Amino acid sequence: MRIARITAYRLDLPFKDGAYVVSGGRAALGFDATVVALHTDGDVTGWGEMAPLGAAYDPAFAGGARAALEELAPLLLGEDPTQVVRLNRRMDAILMGHNYAKAAIDMACWDILGKTAGMPLAELLGGRYGETVDLYRSVSQDAPAVMAQRATHYTRAGYRRIQVKVGGDPAEDVARVRAVAAAVPRGTVLFADANGGWALGDARRFVGLARDLDLTLEQPCRSLADCAALRPHCPFPLVLDESIDGLAALLAARGLADGVTLKLARVGGVTKARQLRDAAVELGMKVTVEDTGGSDIDTAAMAHLSLSTPEAFRLHTVDFNNWVTVSNATGMPEAKDGRLAAPTAPGLGVTPRMEVLGEPFLEVG
């Protein structure tokens, strides 16, 4: 089986709840998604999606992904998409770095592999551990009372895991977490996520002020070195997100992080995320599998990789398709009671809505 044609589509995905704000005043009104289709000479088509959270979150931006696709696509014609590791090495040889630009192609290869094998991705990626995975919902950074109100809205919708966006003034951040903790039902799991927004001194001040709270701290400082310096002062479980961009970073986090967040676009797609997931499990770290953004196609991939993670090492994932106003595929199960299932049809198990995707911006082959 060979890649005979590649098409790609641009899709705007506005957030249902307005601006999404994280530390440093970084804000986005939605995702700018790129959807890729790999058409084979065997009449099997695979689909993939990636969407960076603006240009100030990760070293990635939507325009860069589309420019990179124009470089990559012509040189991938004739390749076998079912040889996922080999094709990843081929992309890395063509374009150094820019993992985010390769993620949708890699996801489409796994979709083809699953369809060809007649198996859903979860089974191909290691096996299905249970039927659903826990979801978290982020509370965008705002005044404490506003954040408490939003958290209450999400818990009423069924979410039992709330991520509170912090990373500003430590005292105000503690007030944010306290307000949310007081507003949500007992037993709600809280994460305080600074998205790398604190200087080391501010992170130390936050953990000193928040010692009585029951929470998990996520990516307090931008650098791995600063997070390591904070660790002896931190009484909370520590999860690293933005720091984890490859195997070297994961290995450096051993003994420092209790858990890691693997974003498909950041690490380069399903293939590399699976490698990191498996390594993290062997190292005894808990794992969150998610992405920088997307809708139904991307959420399906996250759900499959999450469910194929052993439950003892699984934190949660996110239903991005429920964050946005645009559905780009059918077949993705609806979230229920704060949990998400993965499709059971072969491959990703979803069918793109061609009427939503519109005309491709790129077509080669």
Question: What do you see in this structure?
Answer:
- This protein is of the alpha/beta class and 365 residues long.
- It has two domains: 129 residues, Enolase-like, domain 1 (2-Layer Sandwich); 229 residues, Alpha-Beta Barrel (TIM Barrel), CATH 3.20.20.
- The chain contains 13 helices and 17 strands.
- It has a seven-stranded parallel beta sheet. It has a four-stranded antiparallel beta sheet with strand order 5-4-1-17. A two-stranded antiparallel sheet has the order 2-3.
- Helix 1 packs across helix 2 and helix 2 packs antiparallel against helix 3.
- The mean pLDDT is 97.
User: What would CATH call the homologous superfamily of the largest domain?
Assistant: Enolase-like C-terminal domain
N-C termini distance: 15 Å
The biggest beta sheet reads: 7 strands, parallel
Low-confidence stretches: none
Which series of helices and strands comes N to C?
A: EEEEEHHHHEEHEHEHEHEHEHHEHEEEHE
Strand order of the largest sheet: 7-8-9-10-11-12-13
Structural class: alpha/beta
Outline type: globular
CATH C-level class of the largest domain is Alpha Beta
Helix % is 25-40%
